[in-house]
Specification:
Elements (H helix, E strand, L loop, with lengths): L1 H30 L3 H16 L2 E8 L5 E7 L4 H6 L1 E3 L3 H9 L3 E3 L17 H6 E9 L5 H11 L6 E10 L6 H49 L9 H14 L5 E4 L6 H10 L8 E5 L5 H9 E2 L11 E2 L1 H4 L4 E5 L6 H13 L1 E2 L8 E2 L3 E6 L3 H7 L4 H7 L2 E4 L10 H15 L6 E2 L1 H9 L5 H15 L4 E2 L22 H19 L4 H7 L4 H10 L12
Parallel strand pairs: 7-14, 7-15, 8-11, 11-14, 16-17
Antiparallel strand pairs: 1-2, 1-6, 2-3, 4-5, 5-6, 9-10, 12-13
Keywords: ATP-binding, Coiled coil, DNA-binding, Nucleotide-binding, Transcription, Transcription regulation
Pfam families: AAA_lid_14, GAF, HTH_8, Sigma54_activat
Organism: Candidatus Electrothrix aestuarii
Amino acid sequence: MTTDLHTSIKNQDLARQDLSCLYEITKNLAAGTDLQESLNSVVRVLADMKKMENGTVTIVNPLTRELEIEVACGITATAQKKGKYKLGEGITGRVVSTGEPVIVPRISEEPLFLNRTGIRNDEQKKKSSFICVPIKVTFESSEQKVFIQDIHDRSDNLSIGALSVAVYYENEFGSQSEQDLRFLTIVSALIAQTVHRVQVINREKEALQMENQRLRRELSGKNRLSDIIGNSSRMQEVFEMVHRVADSNATVLLRGESGTGKSMVAKSLHHNSRRADKPFLVVNCSALPENLLESELFGHEKGAFTGAEQRKKGRFELAEGGTLFLDEIGEISTTVQIKLLNVIQERCFQRLGGTELIKSDIRLVAATNRNLEEAVLEGVFREDLYYRLNVFPVHLPPLRERRTDILLLAEYFLEQYCQENNKRIERISTTAIDLLIKYHWPGNVRELQNCMERAVLICDSNTISAVHLPPTLQSSDSVSTDSPLSLSGAVESFERELIIDALKHTNGNQTKAAARLETSLRIINYKIHNYGIDPKQFKVKS
């Protein structure tokens, strides 16, 4: 009776001790966001409150697939480095491999106990017991789950590591060890929850960083002239010049090949000026014959010409207080040139068939792809008008001279046309990117825009590939002239591109890349090493 009472009191004391210990562990784990520090606090509490020595948390290294000591109490850093195990090797390797806990009554009598750290002498082995429990994590990410399942070659084991301790039992090994096993199983579950929580926090941080980058890009785009895309040095020069002149009333002449974005720059000049809340009107001077162009620009009175059944206001009148953009200014006739010169000089005009002088307060922006200097020398463009227009010239570079912007533009158009066509295309393949960058783009940004619209429309997967690009991009003058590859060389090249694509999509994460390609991490690591690929170059810098 006395013995039973003593045992009962002892068990109650142990239970209270366990609860106190669990409280300290839970409090420490909940307070920390640094995983290693949190785990260190666990093994310290086990040593201080439960006299569980040499507490060790061992985690699977995703690259080597070996178990390595993450944190340990009472074990030197040198000894920790020695504590590496293959899955299934030793007690720790067996626990992680099977997902089942193990109790070793006497370390000295257990052949599977390898003592890799070398911290226990023969006398200590005779006295100490060893308890090891698996750490099983619940994954929200299917890619992480696939990786763990792939490590163990089974779907029901999600062990990422193990918690182990050495215990010195004064009396015969028995019920106390079973109670300690249950206690450590609870602790390992708390560790697993902490690992999961830290993973969620890290994912949320990554999501916030990505959202922050997206917002920064959007804000940068707004501050940097509306929807104009470009990070190249040539475009930075354009942005700088436009910023300088935007808020003035100076006439701007935009020079550049067709499709370089002159209309976009004109629109940005207006939206970044003090006239932004006033009209922005566009006239394509090459699209209308001379008589219609005059009427379009200056308006006409009723009966001014056949078909003029009522008075019509011209663009100079309609754009009052705002900006008038005259595209293809180099195509206008001499007659229209004279009238345009008069408006610029006198700030007033007359409608066709009218006598009333109408004052004009507009900001004039003109654009041309012609060599106006040659046109002046040839006598087809008035020299005085040229100087009136050429107050502040801005030269827009062709796309072939700003190749670093090609991928940026392509991804912008990809997102735009995916939204318009309600399609989900995630990326552009490496082969397609190479073709886009190597092509000479005679039609400039407009041609690239049309190219990406076509690619989105015909793409039936989540990736824009080379086959989705126009045949002109794959012609002999736009691709590499290297000697043809052998079959094995072509396969290796294609395989390398697939791996690079996966790493780009996963920000250099080999585990996610392996899951994406439906292969094992071991094979991916082998291929990465074999092909000389550096995953770090694909990581997004925050």
